[in-house]
Amino acid sequence: MRYRRPAALLTVALAGALTLAGCGDGDSGGKDGADAKAGGSGTRSVTDANGKKVDVPAAPKKVVTLSEPTLDAALALGAHPIGATSGRGQSGVADYLAPKAKDAQIVANTAEPDLDKLAALRPDLILLDETVGAKRVQDKLSRIAPTVLTAKLNAPWRDAFAATADALGKKADGQKWLDTFDARLKAVKNGLGANAGAVTSVIRWQNGAPSVVGKGKGHVGDTLTALGLKRPQGQQGESSGHSEPVSLERLETIDGDWLFLGALGDRAAGEKGLKEATAVPNFGKLKAVEKHHVVVIDGSAWNSSGGPLAAEAVLTDVEKALAKKS
């Protein structure tokens, strides 16, 4: 479905956005005072993922995030977006973000935004990336409010996070978050004990079969690599898509010392997926299953497009399952 914008609504939304952008007080809400007070004009310039300069409010108050990574990053930085996109396969925001995103209205899905709903919110800043279809209507979004494309498709999640922090005027806060996360990564890695270097498989169980997720430099692959954990041969390298289906005749390719299994939803959906998997012939013969090394995960975080809070969820699950266990 495509959405059409009444001309009058667009004019009102654009006028409101320009008014909001010009009334910033220079307080970024973070520790980037120099950035937030650029020229003392209430606006500052950032460079988006396409190399385009965008003038954004120095202290944005009404932010709309049109992708999981930008919503995730904004919430990690203490911002409270007023509009957001629904999670993959979900009617609301991704389940792992829901507790922090109670104030966000759904104005898009991963395929496209609802421009009328979005304009009605009168945002002063719109954030998105190439993980969503909204990238195709960036010119229309820019007529509603300053719009920043934070990252290209498959960009490292850390770079995408840093770009979102910069757009929000919270660059220093973003770096502080990463420093804290990296310190915890190191501590968890040092506590893996006998599981150091373990072969770790990550799959999503959906429609009666598994799919590989978390390959490459996304929040899952990056976190597991940083912990020194290995991946099965079929889960190495970059992914050809968000997920890669695996034939039931090749179940052995998803085996490992540990198997992290989720679904397209929360942890309860993952439990249902595991129940379905155990009914499949040969699943019970996997080494990870025989050793009781199957960990049900919150798929809304592990299978998401990524972000700092998603990476934190991965780290927490790995720590609970593998740290100091044989």
UniProtKB/TrEMBL annotation:
GO cellular component: outer membrane-bounded periplasmic space
Any Gene Ontology biological process: iron coordination entity transport
Keyword Transport in annotation: yes
Leader sequence segment: 1-21
Residue ranges, annotated region (Disordered): 26-51
Chain ranges passing through the membrane: none
Principal localisation: other
Keywords, comma-separated and alphabetical: Signal, Transport
Location within or outside the cell: Cell envelope
Domain of life assignment: Bacteria
Family of this protein: Belongs to the bacterial solute-binding protein 8 family.
Annotated protein name in UniProt: ABC transporter periplasmic component
Annotated organism of origin: Streptomyces paromomycinus
